[in-house]
Design a protein that fits this description.
Blueprint lengths: L16 H18 L13 E6 L5 H12 L3 E6 L11 H9 L5 E6 L4 H8 L3 E7 L5 H15 L6 E5 L6 H12 L3 E5 L15 E3 L2 H7 L2 E4 L15 H8 L3 H4 L7 E3 L12 H4 L6 H20 L11
Parallel strand pairs: 1-2, 1-3, 3-4, 5-6, 5-8, 6-7, 8-9
Helix pairs in contact: 1-5, 1-11, 2-11, 5-6, 5-11
């Protein structure tokens, strides 16, 4: 039984401002568990989670695995390579066979937009979207928002710049939706060819000047150039991209006030961000990674935690 008015986490578009606040507040309490000598509670004992990852992943996959283990869930890991999918089995048949083994939660990453929504229509299990193509990545946006809220105390009124490959970034759309619902103002910055048409309908501002974005924002979330998802010819070269949209220390020093720098990873150092910025006092990148475990613990607990946390766990 979900402790939220939702069975699944497919898109932040389905979640209200109050729902997101509950997730972030719960993640703060989960973070306290990660700071204990014994980083484990029995909250999801008896719950079985399968991590159904059809695309490469490091941070998200490990983060979900850790979150599941911290909550004492039984965890199974699935990868497409070496599975029956490589023999021609359909995604639905694979998922139905896994569900027949009596699993409770599916954490899914897939290259096709909408694939978690598809499974949610056919399975009884709880579905959590861990990234679907260029569409959404809701838990990444939640951990980004948690990191910003820890830094600034609130999201309301913040000016947050999303810089880079907006068109191919699932992180971008989830951040746009989540931050806007929480009262932040989102600025999109990147080459014209990497800004999706019609994105203005989300109430965002658009600029093609990184220097302008630096002058007007409180925080920048730097997005990787996703060459594996792009068609050729969207910008002349990585060197030219870096010259116009790469975040350097020289550019950062132009800010009117200290900027907070986020990056969902993996980082292409020297392309979208230089090492002296990524490793600087402005960066909260490693804090994002830590918060990722807490956020995913919160999501799993709120969606799959049929019972309140026992008193001895003191969340």
């Amino acid at each position: 039984m979900s402790l939220l008015p939702h069975k699944h986490l497919l898109s932040l578009a389905d979640y209200s401002e109050q729902d997101i606040a509950i997730l972030l507040d719960t993640a703060e309490r989960m973070k306290e568990i990660l700071d204990r000598p014994v980083k484990k509670v029995p909250t999801l004992r008896g719950v079985t989670v399968v991590n159904l990852f059809m695309e490469p992943s490091t941070r998200t996959r490990i983060s979900f695995e850790l979150a599941e283990k911290r909550l004492s869930a039984d965890t199974l890991n699935f990868s497409a390579s070496g599975s029956s999918l490589s023999k021609g089995e359909t995604l639905l048949d694979t998922a139905l066979n896994i569900e027949a083994m009596k699993i409770d939660v599916v954490v899914m990453r897939h290259k096709s937009p909408g694939s978690p929504h598809f499974l949610a229509r056919h399975l009884d299990a709880i579905i959590i979207n861990a990234g679907d193509g260029c569409h959404e990545h809701p838990t990444q946006a939640l951990l980004d928002m948690l990191t910003l809220r820890q830094k600034f105390g609130t999201l309301k009124g913040l000016h947050v710049g999303l810089v880079g490959d907006i068109s191919h970034s699932r992180v971008a759309l989830s951040n746009i939706i989540g931050l806007s619902k929480m009262g932040a103002h989102v600025v999109l910055c990147g080459p014209t060819t990497l800004i999706p048409r019609g994105v203005e309908r989300f109430g965002v501002s658009i600029t093609h000047s990184l220097d302008e974005t630096i002058r007007t924002c409180d925080a920048l979330n730097i997005l990787r150039i996703q060459l594996e998802r792009q068609e050729a010819g969207l910008f002349p070269s990585l060197r030219e991209y870096q010259a116009y949209f790469g975040l350097t220390r020289r550019r950062l020093d132009q800010a009117k006030a200290p900027l907070t720098i986020l990056h969902p990873g993996p980082i292409n150092r020297g392309v979208e961000i230089t090492s002296d910025v990524a490793d600087s006092e402005h960066s909260v990148i490693l804090q994002q990674v830590t918060n990722g475990v807490a956020v995913r613990m919160a999501v799993l607990y709120l969606l799959a935690g049929a019972q309140p946390v026992a008193a001895e766990t003191k969340m």
